[in-house]
Sequence to fold (281 residues):
Amino acid sequence: MSATTETNYHAGPDAVSKKKSRYRRVSKGRGNFELWSWVFMRASGVLLLVLVFGHLFVNLMLGEGIHGIDFAFVAGKWSSPFWQTWDMLMLWLAELHGFNGVRTIINDYTEKDRTRWILKGLLVASALVVMVLGTLVIFTFDPCLDPSSTLSVCAR
Amino acid sequence: MAQAANGTLYRGREGMWSWVAHRISGVLLFLFLFAHVLDTALVRVSPDAYNEVMEAYKNPIVGLGEAGLVAAVIFHALNGLRIIAVDFWDKGPKYQRQLFWAVVIGFVVLFAPFAIRHLTIVFTH
Fold:
């Protein structure tokens, strides 16, 4: 054991790394953003498991399965606040979960700042389009648009 | 790509491949969601516009794509639970490989009945 090693050991493990490593655990002023994004991925993932499996079961397994999907099917579901709320929650959570996942992938693989910012710009734009358009469609939808509708809410 | 001084940091086997599959399935689902919101938005245009596009989807090629999509959802969901177990269960990291094979078994159990039901509809209509 050399004297240097012993000195460093007694000064604690940080003494070595702070001197020799170029890595600095310095905050860039983003607070706990990455921690909360990590928490969000797990929490939204569990909720999405229920929302998406329920969505797939009702739309693809019950009734006529995928063959039964048409305007009347959508009108039947979205004339009920239950499915409107279900689909809105699913839309927001899925888009934000996917946004955060793709953000991580962009951070992992882009090497130039310019490429990173262009891809993130496209990502933000597409996420906004999906969430705004999707929410508007769910809540401004008119289930009685089809004149041959047999839904009870459309009876005049 | 991240590299150590001697070759790659990637270590192969269940841990790495489940991570790769999680990324690929996740990106696929993200791209699908974009298309899915746009085509469903057609209900706001007119019943005919929506029905026309839905009719165009009812063929074996799109039907197989839908099966692949559900496969991606099931894998991503179950492997997501595995990731949560690795993060929050104290024995999770030790059993991550066994958990991967549990994901594979769960995948078969959930996907097989769906594939039979869905592909029967797709190929008999």
